[in-house]
Amino acid sequence: MPAPAKPAKIVSLIASATEIVCALGARDRLVGRSHECDYPPDILELPQLTEPKFPVEGSSSEIDKRVKAVVEEGLSVYRVDADALESLSPDIIVTQDHCEVCAVSLSDVEDAVCAWSGRNAEIVSLHPGSLADIWADIAKVASALGDPEAGETLIARSMARMETIAAEARKAKSKPSIAMIEWIDPMMGGGNWMPELVEMAGATDFLAKPGEPSPWVEWDDILKEDPDIVFVHPCGFDIPRTLQEMPILEAKPGWQDLKAVRDGKIFVADGNQYFNRPGPRVVESLEILAEIAHPDLFPPRFEGTGWIRYAGTSS
Questions:
Q1: CA separation for the pair 61, 41 (Å, rounded)
Q2: Domain made up of 10-127: CATH architecture
Q3: Residue 33 to residue 11: CA distance in whole angstroms
Q4: Which homologous superfamily is 174-309 in?
Q5: Tens digits of per-residue pLDDT, 74-123?
Q6: pLDDT tier at 2 (50, 70, 90 boundaries)?
Q7: What digits encode the pLDDT tens for the residues 287-315?
Q8: CA-to-CA distance for 164 and 260, rounded, in angstroms?
Q9: Which residues 6+ apart lie within 8 Å of 86 measured at CB?
Q10: What is the mean pLDDT of the chain?
Q11: CB 102: neighbour CB atoms within 10 A?
């Protein structure tokens, strides 16, 4: 009898895809990761295959300027270690073609693979712009892994959990307005799948539209709406890193006059682990929003880890 085929070796070059692979039960097949892949924690032991082409330290404004400078030169934001990638001999490489800032691009990976000789690797590129796209990407990865049933099960389980949360949120007597802030300086609203999460959490989003890219936002837009809640979740920032940026918002004219400030409804979330990762933990992201929008209906399960209430620079 012929020897059974060896399980395909997988490299994931985007954090959300790493979580998808692990949630599908294929953690043991991962052999490499990106510099941003950090969950589940044990994947940190895998070789890191990417790095940013610019310093990631500094304020959000400084980071934004560095990113734009690289992009304006027609260059990609991240670097792929082609030699290290080839040495791992992966059968499947998962990347993305949705955002040039979120992770290495499809063209980066294709360039790296083109340098190889005598080996073919399947490149699976994800493009999550909405909740439906997230489910489609999970199905795409599951199919590439040869286990579409696992994808169907994960999707069905995730959707059922989210519907349970949404059904509870529909019991609320009001729908608070939320200013979803995905980047502080310059200011950006939370787009793509986040307006859908806001709606499912029983709230309203006035800064972005479902399925559309995250928009640049003027401070006057916030002042004019005077939202019930200000929710700050910068892409790539954890809670301590975001707290360093909050004085920028507090210095805005009219900050103290905002209803959300007066009512103590300014919240800071871990935008790195949640919200900006279009993978299995989109469910937890919805639950966090529900906890904040309707604390009378949802116990604060993620308070202190996924989100905190912000009371000012002394908090």
A1: 29
A2: 3-Layer(aba) Sandwich (3.40)
A3: 6
A4: Nitrogenase molybdenum iron protein domain (3.40.50.1980)
A5: 446 678 888 898 899 899 999 887 555 555 556 666 666 656 645 678 88
A6: very low
A7: 999 999 999 999 999 999 999 999 886 54
A8: 28
A9: 112, 115, 116, 119
A10: 89
A11: 20
DSSP per position, the chain: -PPPPPPPPEEE-SHHHHHHHHHTT-GGGEEEB-TT---SGGGGGSPB-EEESS---S-HHHHHHHHHHHHHTT--SEEE-HHHHHHH--SEEEEESS-TTTS-BHHHHHHHHHT-SS---EEEEE--SSHHHHHHHHHHHHHHTT-HHHHHHHHHHHHHHHHHHHHHHTT-S---EEEEEEETTTTEE--TTHHHHHHHTT-EESS--TTSPPPB--HHHHHHH--SEEEE--TT--HHHHHHHHHHHHTSTTGGGSHHHHTT-EEEE-TTTTTS--STTHHHHHHHHHHHH-TTTS--TTBTTTEEE---TT-
Q: Helices 15-23 and 131-144, interaxial angle, to 10°?
A: 60
Structure tokens at 266: 């300014």
Q: CA nearest 227: which of 211, 212, 207, 243?
A: 207
- Nearest of 31, 1, 12 to residue 279 by alpha carbon: 12
| Domain definitions of the chain by residue range | 10-127, 174-309
pLDDT by residue (tens digit) across 249-287? Answer: 999 999 999 999 999 999 999 999 999 999 999 999 999
Both tokens of 30, joined, read: 């991962």
